[in-house]
């Protein structure tokens, strides 16, 4: 018998040739197969340099998109107060989103520089252009709501008033992209907790954006006009919770980062508040206090969802198994096929 270079025991010579029946002798491992994780358990990836401002950017961008979509529906169905609240909410949250993004970039001109090129393979580039297309429409629609009555009689005021509906509809058309591109942006990084969730994360973010936009409308608009907001809240919450649950169970080992630690705590409270807000939206009727409370719960749930996803991604970079094990599984699957 001879020990081979790969740790297996063969019969006969170095390769078992020349020994009758050697081909039928089953080889045995003399050394157990190593389970490599990383060099002395050290991290393979560095944690993202982003901090809480990026999580806030994810939330405020989604809130803006959900509010713009609700504002367009309110405009088309003749609900002026809900339209006003949602248009102003869309602009305010967009400005907050851009503030968090630019503040995290460190230099404001970096946002401007990203508009010099359009790169379809870059989610950041496409997201910047998406914001560029979305912002003017959301801005014009909101300015029309803020314009004093005496200014509306002027030539400029008349023009802005006439452009308000087309601008609002244009913003609503781009709103789903604004709400979901950040999920694609996270998924294109090397962070395992985000990359492995690339098939589900956009649905989580879109549902969360719809729920938060509806929550803002329920919180601030007159209760008599909150019917569309309450229906959007139920739809968005159902999509968010279903996609979130599916994601954490179908992304393999990286799903542990969503069900343990700080991320799990944040997302558990997010689900409680989101489901509670959706139930309140469905059964609260015209009770002002119940509608407003449900709206606040939906906003808080959406905020915690984004922070939970952010924390899960950071946690997945700190243990090398979330990098090595999925890579090994993909290599083994490719070898079999």
Description of the structure:
By secondary structure, this protein is mainly alpha-helical. The protein has one domain (50-318): Formate dehydrogenase/DMSO reductase domain (Formate dehydrogenase/DMSO reductase fold), CATH 1.20.1630.10. Helices cover 70% and strands 2% of the residues. The protein is built from 13 helices and 3 strands; from the N terminus they run E-E-E-H-H-H-H-H-H-H-H-H-H-H-H-H. It has helices at 52-76, 80-105, 109-113, 123-146, 149-152, 155-187, 192-195, 201-220, 227-250, 256-259, 261-283, 288-316, 321-336; strands at 2-3, 8-10, 28-29. Strands 1-2-3 form a 3-stranded antiparallel β-sheet, with no helix packed on it. Strand 1 and strand 2 form a beta hairpin. Helix 11 runs antiparallel to helix 12. It is globular, with a radius of gyration of 26 Å. The model is unreliable at 1-25 (pLDDT under 50). Belongs to the NrfD family. It comes from Mycolicibacterium duvalii. Its main location: membrane. InterPro entries: Electron_transfer_protein, NrfD-like. It is found in: Cell membrane.
In short:
Helix content is 70%, strand content 2%. It has 337 residues and is mostly helical.
Number of continuous helical runs: 13
**Strand count, sense and closure of the main sheet?**
3 strands, antiparallel
Using the alpha-carbon principal axes, give the shape.
globular
**Helices and strands: which structural class?**
mainly alpha
Transmembrane segments: 54-76, 88-106, 126-146, 167-188, 200-221
InterPro entries: Electron_transfer_protein, NrfD-like
Membrane topology: Multi-pass membrane protein
Keywords: Cell membrane, Membrane, Transmembrane, Transmembrane helix
